[in-house]
């Protein structure tokens, strides 16, 4: 069997075609958004929103509505609660995030334990990529297209907000509105990626591509290309690995993402750990020999 035959084999099945499509959409959207999350320092916010959608998913399954609707409602609710607690009290952002997302996640666990027959815990937490239907694919495509359109159309304002909120305010932009746009995009993106890898692993898709791109370039414009490319490649390779190894698709996708981040962390030309060590040794070798300091008198 040739390499082309191996690559085409999974595509013979309709459920694999839908899995590839959903994962590619989710990876591209998450990759673009992750650039802003890493740059602003909102990685923990992404983790919080990803976990806070659990009760919304459970409630959606219980009442028979699309799970994306319940997830989106609770993702927006988590964003509003975190912002409200942070703005109206003495609690700092990290503490507000911890309180809100653990409380909402615990609510989801309680609902699952109370209604065990109606809800599959592993299906919610780890995704059901191979069980994606046509309706779910359409939902993901619509939400993903809307999110990418907003991020790309507002990218200049959002970049200015990320680098210098004070300057954005002086030229007439509202940092509060731009922050709300990013948080809303985060909520929608979590819903998009949730179908692919589930609640627990979705945070990897909204953080790792941006972190990898951040190690590979100092230009934000290049990050917007590198991050979604890293996410898309990881998604495709991860699905192929899951098919041939009979493993969890979400898990293999995140493992490939982690492997690419590790390679960038070690071998990035400018910011890689090994590159820094080599440059430091070269500087030591080429530095002129300095005379030893004279001993001090007692």
Give me the secondary-structure topology:
Elements (H helix, E strand, L loop, with lengths): L2 H6 L5 H27 L2 H10 L1 H10 L3 H22 L4 H22 L6 H6 L7 H20 L1 H9 L1 H6 L4 H42 L3 H26 L3 H19 L5 H14 L12
What's the architecture in CATH terms? Orthogonal Bundle
User: What is the assigned CATH homologous superfamily?
Assistant: ABC transporter involved in vitamin B12 uptake, BtuC
Q: Which band does the percent of strand residues land in?
A: under 5%
- Our count of domains comes out at 1
Helix content range: over 70%
Mean pLDDT: 82
Label the structural class.
Answer: mainly alpha
Shape: globular
How many distinct helices? 14
Count every beta strand, where a strand is a DSSP E run of 2 or more residues: 0
Question: What is the string of helix and strand elements?
Answer: HHHHHHHHHHHHHH
> What is the CA-based Rg, rounded?
22 Å
């Amino acid at each position: 069997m040739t390499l082309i035959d191996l690559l085409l084999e999974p595509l013979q099945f309709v459920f694999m075609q839908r899995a590839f499509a959903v994962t590619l959409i989710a990876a591209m959207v998450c990759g673009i958004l992750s650039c802003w999350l890493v740059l602003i320092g909102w990685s923990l916010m992404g983790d919080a929103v990803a976990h806070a959608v659990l009760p919304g998913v459970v409630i959606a399954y219980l009442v028979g509505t699309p799970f994306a609707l319940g997830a989106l409602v609770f993702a927006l609710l988590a964003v509003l609660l975190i912002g409200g607690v942070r703005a109206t009290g003495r609690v700092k952002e990290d503490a507000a995030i911890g309180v809100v997302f653990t409380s909402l996640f615990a609510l989801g666990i309680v609902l699952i334990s109370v209604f065990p027959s109606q809800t599959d815990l592993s299906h919610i937490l780890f995704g059901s990529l191979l069980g994606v239907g046509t309706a779910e694919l359409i939902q993901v495509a619509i939400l993903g297209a809307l999110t990418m359109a907003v991020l790309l159309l507002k990218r200049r304002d959002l970049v200015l907000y990320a680098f210098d909120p004070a300057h954005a305010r002086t030229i007439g932009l509202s940092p509060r509105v731009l922050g709300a746009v990013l948080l809303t995009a985060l909520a929608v993106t979590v819903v998009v990626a949730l179908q692919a890898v589930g609640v627990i692993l979705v945070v990897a898709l909204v953080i790792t591509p941006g972190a990898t791109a951040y190690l590979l370039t100092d230009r934000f414009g290049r990050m917007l290309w590198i991050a979604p490319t890293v996410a898309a490649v990881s998604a495709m390779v991860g699905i192929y690995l899951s098919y041939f190894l009979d493993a969890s698709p979400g898990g293999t996708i995140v493992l490939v993402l982690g492997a690419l981040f590790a390679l960038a962390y070690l071998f990035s030309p400018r910011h890689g750990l090994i590159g820094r060590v080599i440059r430091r040794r070269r500087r030591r070798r080429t530095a002129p020999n300095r005379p030893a300091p004279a001993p001090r008198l007692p």
